[in-house]
Amino acid sequence: MIESLLVANRGEIARRVIRTARRLGIRTIAVYSDADASLPFVQEADESVLIGPANPAQSYRNAEAILSAAKATGAQAIHPGYGFLSENADFARAVADHGLIWVGPGPDAIDAMGDKINARNLMAAAGVPVAPGTTDPAATVEAAVAEAERIGYPVMVKAAAGGGGMGMAAAADEAALRIEYEKVRAFAERMFGDASVLIERYFPRVRHIEVQILGLADGRVVALGERECSVQRRNQKVLEESPSPAVTPQLRERLCAAAVRAGEAVGYRNAGTVECLLDPSTNEFFFLEMNTRLQVEHPITESVYGVDLVEEQLRVASGLPPTFDPDALSPSGHAIELRINAEDPKRFLPGPGAITTWVEPEGEGVRVDAGYAAGTTVTPNYDSLMAKLVVSGPDRSTAIERARAAVRDFQVAGPKCNLPFFAELLDNPEFVAGDYDTGIVGRMRK
């Protein structure tokens, strides 16, 4: 097993990785920016290194500073968490070049899945269903219009190098496509340094389903069930649950088999997620993208499968077998994750600030992965995620009841907070029935 680990991230995910590493007897090193000096993860690591100012480009995305910290502290391995450099193939290569262990998939797999067009083509070749769309970038608006006519409206315009719900827009007709194409192309160039755009069929009513995969040290790829991620605002997830209320055992088998094929197609190792769109009217699903890292919502899979995915990541990176029997995986119970963000509960606009009250809920089936505490400050420099409230039970109705109680008991004052939104959502008839799609938040806010 790895003996010392630098966590190249911040907030709740850094704290969460440190927790498992320390349980396993691994020495932990945190890196932090000026803005994060007082956060819990900095104090909880065995050693902490200041790597730069609040600007992520000068700290958490500064590969040179992170590698220097690893060398100075004698770290043996680097865990990137999610976001920042977690899906940066060049950083993964640099880690290996410095003689360190990268706790994640190989850089070739990251490269292969980082471009949405390349990923689509690879998945189609591997027999994974993909939505009708382009096999090459639409280099001009006229090319985009021609592809849309072939595919059929409505279409989705996507930044090929995008991720996290950013760089995409729907177009119902040619006039809208011409406008959105230019917007997405400009956004992609500005945000990702790559203006490549793809055109894909847009499904007005769709569910967002993803499958957790784990590429083992012996070369096998296994699937640990699915997560429902259809509660979204601005194409970004705010609540996830597992298992999905829309997925039957037969559909789960098909989804997991496709996800395993996806992982095998790129020689995948370590934890990753295969994201799909599910048409609830036909039960057809289509490959969306692969996230070559640990997901924010991994705790709900941990809950229903009884595994610690960070521990499994560390075991794979160490060349060790998993703690579970890959041939005897089966889910038990139901889990829901709510992303507690520092944002307005109506319009979902960020509202950072100093936390004056922070009281976490307790009780059976309640887990809180928090990045903050009373007396700390949510700054505008990073994502608004403050904590993840994970609630589980023997069945979905019990999990929902426990989630309602936990939301009532969670006390946050200082920054804006989206807890009132979750109180509303957990009583929403569509959500309670399990018959919802990615448009549920939009319908709630009409």
Which descriptors apply to this entry?
ATP binding, metal ion binding, nucleotide-binding, 446 residues, five-stranded parallel β-sheet, eight-stranded antiparallel β-sheet, Rudment_hybrid_motif, alpha+beta
Describe, in short, the structure shown.
This protein is an alpha+beta fold. The chain contains 15 helices and 20 strands. The protein has an 8-stranded antiparallel sheet with strand order 13-12-9-10-11-14-19-17. The protein has a 5-stranded parallel sheet with strand order 3-2-1-4-5. A 3-stranded antiparallel sheet has the order 7-6-8.
Description of the molecule:
With about 450 residues, this protein is α+β, with helices and mostly antiparallel strands. Helix content is about 35%, strand content about 25%. An eight-stranded antiparallel β-sheet has the order 13-12-9-10-11-14-19-17. Strands 3-2-1-4-5 form a five-stranded parallel β-sheet. The chain has a three-stranded antiparallel β-sheet with strand order 7-6-8. The longest helix has 19 residues, at about 175-190. The radius of gyration is 21 Å and the shape is globular. The termini are far apart. The mean pLDDT is about 95. Pfam families: Biotin_carb_C, Biotin_carb_N, CPSase_L_D2. InterPro entries: ATP-grasp, BC-like_N, Biotin_carboxylase_complex, Biotin_carboxylation_dom, Biotin_COase_C, CPAse_ATP-bd, PreATP-grasp_dom_sf, Rudment_hybrid_motif. This is Acetyl-CoA carboxylase biotin carboxylase subunit. It comes from Rugosimonospora africana.
